[in-house]
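Handout for the seminar on molecular recognition.
Each group receives one record of this type.
Step one: identify the two inputs.
Step two: read the structure output and locate the region that could contact zinc ion.
Step three: write two sentences on what you found, then compare them with the reference statements printed after the record.
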Amino acid sequence: MKELNFTIEQTAAAARTGHVHVNGQELSTPQLVHTGGELGKLTAWQLKRVNVAAIKVNGLPWWLKADHQVNSLPDLHDFYHWNGLLLVDQQTRVAYQAAKPRGRKKDGVRFHDPVTGQLKFYQPADGLALQQALGADIYQSFDRSVDYYAPVDDLAAGVEQTAAWLPATSTVAGQTLGKITGGGLKDLRQKSVSAVQQAGMAGYSLAGIPADLPDKEFNRILNELVDLLPAAHLRYLPTSSSLTQLLIAVLAGVDLIDSDLAAKKAGMGVALVGPHLTSLHLDRQHFATDFTALDEKCQCPVCQGGYRRATIHQLVTSNAILGEQLLLQHNLFVLDRLMGEIRQAIEDQQLESFIQELRQNP
Ligand SMILES: [Zn+2]
C-alpha cells in the first residue's frame, strides 16, 4: 500500500484547495466524504454517476460480527463494487458509550455488544486490523472517545490515552490520520496535535467535535483547532451535518469533510434546489400536480431522466424506496457541484463573496 500524498494548490485566507493521492486514487480538496447508512440504498454505479468520490462506512458492526476473525471480512471495495475512496469508522465513540467506567482500560475498551450482550475487548490493534481487512484507503488512529463537554480531567485522560496509542499505527503512519482529541479546550487540543506531529502521521483527524454543537461553538473550536495545525498536512473532519457546518469547515481550511447532508435530507423527503440549495419538501400536497423537474437547471441523472416533482411526491408519500433513492442521487450531485464551485471560488480568491451569495435568502 502506498503512502498518502497531499499537495496544496491555492490558499484563500484560511481555506485552501489541494490534491490527495492514495492507492492510485486522486481527489481534489476540499472534498466531501459521504456518510450515512442510506448510501447503501444506491449501487456503487449510481454513486459514481452522481460524482461521489469518497464514502465512509461504519466498521464496528463488522468487527462485532467477525468476533476477532477480521481476516474473514470482505474488502468493501469488492463487496460493494466500489472503486472510490473508502474510509472505515472504528466507532470508538459507540464502544466507549457502551462501556462502564471500569471498562476504560490502558490497553483498550471493554464493553457489551449492544446486540448480543456479549462482553468485547476492543483494542488499538483491532481498530487497525479492521480498517485493513475492510480495505480502507486512509486509516485513522484509535482514540479514547470522551464527550465534548466532559470534565477537564476526563478530557485530559482521553488526550493522554489517545496519544499513547499512536505507536499502534506506526507501521502505517504514512497513510494514517492521527486523531486530535480534547473537547473544546485549546491546551488539550495542542497536546494532542503535538503528539500526532511527533508520530509523523500523514495528517490530522479532528475528532470529538459533535455535529450537534451550536454553530457558534462549532465555528470557534474548528478555527482554534486548525490554527494549531501545521499547514502542509491533510485535515479531515469526521463530523458535519448541516450546510452551515460544511461551509464553516471549508472556510476554516479543512480538506476532507464528512457529510451526511445528502442522505439525511433525502430521508426527510427533501431535495436541495436552486442557487441557494433551498430545501424542497416533496411530501407537501401541492407537488402532487407539479410536473416540473426537481430543479430545471440541474444536470443530475434524475432531473435529466424525466422524473417530475409529482412523481417523486407520489413515491415519497407512499414511502416507496425509489423516492428516497432519487432524492439521494439528486442531492449528492448538487453537493458535488457545490464543492466544485467552492474549489473554483478559492482558486479565484472569491470564496467569501461566493458563500455570502449562497447564504442570501432567496
Ligand atoms: Zn437533479
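Reference statements: The chain has a mean pLDDT of 96. The pocket of zinc ion is lined by residues 294-295, 298, 300, 302-303, 330, 333 (CB under 6 Å).
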